[in-house]
Specification:
Number of helices of chain A: 11
Largest sheet of chain A: 7 strands, mixed
Order of helices and strands of chain A: HHHHEEEHEHEHHEEHHH
Distance between the termini of chain A: 15 Å
Structural class of chain A: alpha+beta
Oligomer: homotetramer
Chain lengths: 283, 283, 283, 283
């Protein structure tokens, strides 16, 4: 029997990935109180620089998130996940062009909103990295983004029905997940968000919601922490797998007020479990 | 080829987890005969104290049950399982706040019906521990409880149709599993049974049945032993996965008398197999 | 990369498990030619006794078949598989009461048609062992039997529709698998074939077909070799998983003549692959 | 954490399995430029002979492709994959008669269009090897072929509906995958493409499309590289698993122009990931 690996020394790192529903990654580093954090959450006014060891831990967590998303059926060879830089809110961390399950800490790049690696290095990026840049630019509340390829999510996006919250794990879906149809926005394409124009159109449909489906492609899920974006995308996959079985049938989805009351979830128990699971797989 | 691990020395421990359809965990320790046990089953009149080694074995079995429930798709990061204390029927054993697959023997707490750890320790408990406290309080026949999060069970709970027994493994469902709608009981909530009022409302819908679904949340399964509650919850998952595929279609479910005749099952072969499977996974 | 393990020394043993569509297990030992075998197939007239090492190999293959059936989703903690004794057609080999995945060579018993262990030992048998005894008694052509618990097979059995062959792997189903409803045969029960009366009723519905479904319970698949019974039960599972998704919809099943032309299959490539898979799992 | 294994020394080999959407396996060896390659793609005019080490690497990749197809649910004990010989376009490489997951480099044979091993050896071939011979003969653009047995693909083939592209991963399906009904072509059979007549009939239905379904049997997927044929067959499986859940319902499939724009995909990220996955499984 292996022991739970969460030790006291991981507390700081975990503040990046999970904000307890209150703290924001970017300000935890500045040792703000929860109250201060809430007040500052849109501003990111000059937080203290992140110590190097914390950033290294965040890179490790982002690599782990890549593995979890593969292990949990959210991504296949495609799809990606990013996290906003805790010290510089105009930057974000994302892997170079690699299947998520292949990503290691060393593959994580720091990128600006124009999707240029800040180090100036010439690593190949995901052709759809613009999804991340434009959402971070438009939505200061968003700290992490997952681009999902879960098959059932794709089926929901072409079904003509709205993905609806079935239980408290997907309360964040509120009154339903909006649908982005790239054809209506920019005409005939290869379906990819491979430039800024397409990304801005996607952001417009996302608006102030936590997630958006993409017709004939997948979806995007945001969160106020890495663990939240990952957890939301896993439970979106589960919820969609259920809903595709009952298309055309009347279900009792969460009432809007129930969804709202259940929407504040960082999935902390899941994160530790999923993390151990992918670690065991590679052991 | 690994050998079957069930050895003679495990006989006593197994009496706790599986009562052969006749013995009750709380009285096995007092060395009652099956006949005496049946007569006393509601009373729990002063059984002899459980020897420490037996309690240690039961804690180990409860940790194993946590792993089995994860492995068998009954729980994810959420959901929980408890067992009534064999020597003190007013107490029960349950893990502290942890994803079921992460639970170890050391995480098992002894808790009273008010959901206070009897040792007085300050461990964080599941926010929904009240499910267990109130059911044990109201139902002396219940020796073990599983709170299931199986996705198909959740879908059945919002489908407008009743979960019905399809085969002899789910005969315990009788004429169908009742549905608890928290909104009708206590209004708009985050769907969680996070206090005594909600738990008592759930108990009212459960009534004298072995299980209850919870709309937009999951379900609760009880048993006269740990192995029975676990086995029932696994086969509820299987049964629900089948039934969600045929919503709106006419099936021939077990007749009430067939269900009754098939309801006495402790799933002993499954328990040993599931136990070895999770042990192999951790090896 | 592991090498394929099929070596020359396994040829003899494989004659028991797979008859290449022509040889019958019971007569291979007597070194009959295929033509003789066909002529004798109903008679089993005094074949030479099986050498002990061949019988040991057959016990090992039967244990392997138990593991394969679990691994392939045909059985869970329940269900069983047997093979007719190659030298004594009035006996068959079957595990004692154990979950299939727990069975080892040492658990295999030799049993007569009245379901008594021929050694006189008092091992606990499956309560439904009568399925095997009565089918072997009534059907000399049957050399191996699987009692399946595959969930989709159970759903087909209560759906009001007939399980039909979808592709060449299930050609043996011919014009459809008959359905046994225990209630019509013997009234209200716990659904189990736990005595000779029930078993004889089941045999009547099976008639001269290779398989039969059991309403609210599972099914039985027979074969002219162990590998054939196993292969047929695996592909029955696959076929049923497909068909339950299209209940009420019109599909183009195999025409009766196509099914007939495709029915002669011993699944030899599958057997070697499934065998290695379960061996790797235990390694 | 294991490191990504793609090293510089693998670049040459990878040119065989994946042509980057431009290069063709047969001409890469002749060091043609991409432009020359395009011009020559139908001709295969006297390419330089493949160095032995490259051919050995291609055999290894073909064995790996066999394992990937099993691991990804495209084949079971049946189904097969081949690749056109890079130096001799009138030959192709394919395993001898073995379940795909059992294939090793040493099992790969070089075969001509009449399906004779060119070495003259007497290895048993797949009874359906003619699928490969006749497609390579008729379609110089095809460099690799997968014969799929994915269950959902089989269900689509008997459903009366056309398999349609749901998202950019299956854009190659264009306006839908054609269906071959062997009965209409050659009458009642065992469903197998076990001779040249049946294979030529299949090729006629395939015409200039990248894939074809076979009623009551499976399907065939072609590609301009090994990685493309494998990737297409994996995503055909995913797409079919989704579509069988919505038979009879109106979905928004890719528009023909969208499918066309998305059809140029070699699935390079998937290939590396799938390859590591099967390597880890055997480790």
């Amino acid at each position: 029997m292996k022991q739970t690996r969460t030790a006291k020394t991981e507390t700081t790192r975990r503040a990046f990935i999970s904000n307890g529903g209150l703290l924001l990654a970017g300000t935890v580093l500045a040792s703000s109180t929860a109250a201060e954090t809430k007040a500052n959450s849109g501003a990111f006014a000059a937080p203290a620089p992140a110590p190097q060891q914390d950033l290294a831990a965040l890179r490790a967590d982002l690599a782990t998130a890549n593995h979890i998303l593969y292990d949990q059926g959210v991504v296949d060879g495609y799809g990606h996940v990013s996290v906003r830089h805790p010290a510089n809110p105009n930057h974000f961390l994302i892997s170079r062009w690699l299947a998520p399950d292949m990503v290691t800490d060393a593959d994580i790049l720091e990128v600006d909103f124009d999707c240029k690696p800040v180090s100036g290095e010439k690593a190949r990026l995901y052709s759809e990295v613009f999804i991340h840049g434009e959402i971070y630019r438009a939505r200061p509340d968003v700290k992490s983004i997952v681009h999902t390829h879960a098959p059932a999510v794709i089926l929901m996006g072409i079904s003509g029905e709205t993905l609806m919250p079935m239980y408290q794990m997907t309360g964040y879906m509120g009154t339903g997940v909006p649908l982005f149809d790239i054809r209506k926005a920019v005409g005939m394409t290869n379906m990819l968000i491979s430039d800024v124009v397409r990304a801005k159109a996607l952001v417009q449909t996302l608006a102030d919601k936590p997630a958006v489906l993409m017709r004939g492609h997948g979806g995007v899920v945001t969160g106020s922490s890495l663990a939240q974006a990952v957890g939301r995308s896993v439970y979106m996959r589960v919820n969609a797998e259920l809903q595709v079985q009952v298309l055309g049938k009347k279900m009792t989805y969460l009432a809007p007020e129930e969804a709202q009351l259940a929407s504040n979830n960082d999935y902390p128990k899941d994160w530790e479990m999923w993390k151990r699971k992918v670690a065991d797989r590679r052991a």
